[in-house]
Amino acid sequence: xxxxxxxxxxxxxxxxxxxxxxxxxxxxxxxxxxxxxxxxxxxxxxxxxxxxxxxxxxxxxxxxxxxxxxxxxxxxxxxxxxxxxxxxxxxxxxxxxxxxxxxxxxxxxxxxxxxxxxxxxxxxxxxxxxxxxxxxxxxxxxxxxxxxxxxxxxxxxxxxxxxxxxxxxxxxxxxxxxxxxxxxxxxxxxxxxxxxxxxxxxxxxxxxxxxxxxxxxxxxxxxxxxxxxxxxxxxxxxxxxx
Length: 242
Ligand code: ADP
Ligand code: MG
Hints:
- The chain is α/β, with parallel strands linked by helices.
- Helix content is 36%, strand content 26%.
- It is built from nine helices and ten strands.
- The strands form two sheets. It has a six-stranded mixed sheet, sandwiched between helices.
- 38% of the residues are buried.
- The model has no long low-confidence stretch (mean pLDDT 91).
């Protein structure tokens, strides 16, 4: 089970805790759902992802993954894969080594099982021909596929993606958008996807979470947010002009 529940989550930064990055956010995300987080720069999207990932501890509130509190789960039990905008691959390792590294570190699989899993994932991601290449020999889109492949090869419960396509050109973004949606449909992994791109927000997710200044503005299907924005902010940010 990989439902995710945020219960009045607040995160403050600074010596005097004067920066409120996330302000009393509560959310229920269902197992297998694809939820897109949108909002202007500084609205708390990345901080929220880092809290769900257990990389940052909230100042107040609880985060559950399934029935467990995220802060009580070790990294392995959390079983979360992340893809960020700067998806640094190891430059001196081949694609295969990049993809198998995490598996070797964190699982008890045999060499043969790891190789099998890496090969089948690479084929699914259409990078099967590139396993012996190093990242420097790949295009931006191929590198991004490797980053995605490296994340999903572990067969995670939860996928966190923080603006994973923002370094790609428009054409490649369109391709990768479709790719990520197809992948998520096939795997049924609960996915939290951060973007500031309007098209990604409107087309990719089951539901949209709109944030501004750390506060939840609206959660709903893209069409609900578009046609029935909860407030002026949502209307201005994604809603239809009325
Ligand atoms: P977004 O991803 O939506 O652009 P962030 O979550 O990165 O927003 O940031 C939300 C707010 O929290 C911003 O005001 C940012 O400056 C602040 N912030 C984020 N991380 C830190 C940190 N480690 N220390 C201090 N302030 C931070
Ligand atoms: Mg961010």
